[in-house]
Amino acid sequence: MNNNFVKSPLNYIGGKYKILPQIMPLFPKKIETFVDLFAGGCNVAINVDANKIYVNDNLTYLIKTYKAVNKNTLDATLSHIESRIKEFHLSLTNGKGYNALRQTYNKEKNPLDLFVLVAYSFNHQIRFNSQHEYNNPFGKNRSNFNENMKKNLINFITKLKEKNFIFTDLSFEQFDFSLLTSNDLVYCDPPYLITLGTYNDGKRGFKGWNKLEEILLYETLDKLNKKKVKFALSNVIDHKGKSNDILKKWIKSNSHYYINYLNNHYSNSNYHTKNRDRSSSIEVLITNYKTNI
User: Fold this and answer.
1) Tens digit of pLDDT for each residue in 146-196?
2) Which of 49, 59, 119, 262 has the highest CB neighbour count under 10 A?
C-alpha cells in the first residue's frame, strides 16, 4: 500500500482504501470540484486532489461526526475521546461501560461520542435502528481505540484541515449538480445491489438500496454525462455467482462509457479471462471519460 494514502479511522463496509492505488490513477489529473456522493468512510475523498471536495452521505450522524472533527482542533477531539474512555471505563471487556455510553449517545447525540462507540463496537460498524438509535453491539475482546486507530484519526483530521471540504447529508437524488461543469468529477460508490451489506436492507434507520435506487442512479449519471460532467462509478458486475443484470444492461446501452476492471483481493478477477473463478467478484470503475491509463 502506498504510504502517501491516508486511511480512514472508520472501518466502513465496502471501504476503498485497499484499491486506492488502482482507483486514483483513473481519475482526471485536474479536478476543480470533486463530489463523493456515497462517502461512507471517506477513504476516497480524503485522498483526492481538488480545489473543492464534497463529502456526502445520507447517514446524517456520520456526516455530523465528520463536521465535528473538522471544526474542532485535533487536541480537542483526542481529549474528548480519551475523557470518554476514562469516564465509562471502556476496554476490550467492559460491555456495561460500552452500553452506558451508547445510551448516553442515543440521548444526547454528541457526534464525537459516535466515533468512540464505533471504536468499541462489533467490527467497528455503524448501525442505527428505525428510531435512529445506535444499536451496534459491543465488540468484546476485539474492538477498542488502539494506537493504529488513533494514528489513522490523527492523519485523517490533519488532512481534513488542509483542504476545502464541504459536508452534506443528502440522498444522492437530492444533491444539487446544477453548478458542476466538465472540470468536475462525481464519484459514486453506492451500496452494491448483489452483495450482502447490511446497509442494503433499509432496516438500519436510513433508506436502503434496491433495484429502483440502482436504476435511478444510472439515470442520474446519464444526465451528468449529457451535461459533460465527468463521473466515475464503482460497482461489481458479478459477485459470488450473482449477476448485476441491471448494471450489465446499462453498460451495454452506453457503449461510449469506459469500463476499468479492478483487481481487488479476488483471484482471477479479470472479466475477460476464460478461466476466471465464477464465484469471484468482478469489480469495476466505470467512467464517461477516457482514463489516463
Assistant:
1) 999 999 999 999 999 999 999 999 999 999 999 999 999 999 999 998 775
2) 119
* Beta strand spans in 11-152 (E): 33-36, 52-56
What Rg value do the Cα atoms of the chain yield, rounded?
19
Angle at 47 between CA 198 and CA 224, to 5 degrees: 70
* Cα–Cα distance measured from residue 34 to residue 48, given in angstroms and rounded to the nearest whole number: 8
Across the chain, the runs of DSSP E, i.e. the strands, are: 33-36, 52-56, 165-168, 185-188, 230-239, 242-243, 258-262, 281-287
**CA distances for 196 relative to 168, 213, 233, angstroms:** 26, 16, 19
The model's pLDDT over 99-111, given as tens digits with 9 standing for 90+, comes to 999 999 999 999 9
Domain boundary among 110, 128, 158: 158
Asked if residue 66 belongs to a domain, the reply is: no
What dihedral angle (degrees, nearest 10) is formed by the CA atoms of 268, 269, 273, 276? 50
Q: Are residues 147 and 185 in the same domain?
A: no
Q: In the numeric block, which cell numbers belong to residue 104? A: 448516553
Cell of 139: 465488540
Backbone phi and psi for residue 69, each to the nearest 5 degrees, phi listed first:
-70, -25
- As a whole number of angstroms, the distance between CA 287 and CA 284 comes to 10
Based on the domain organization, do 52 and 180 belong to the same domain? Answer: yes
104 and 225 belong to one structural domain: no
Residue that is last in its domain, among 108, 137, 158: 158
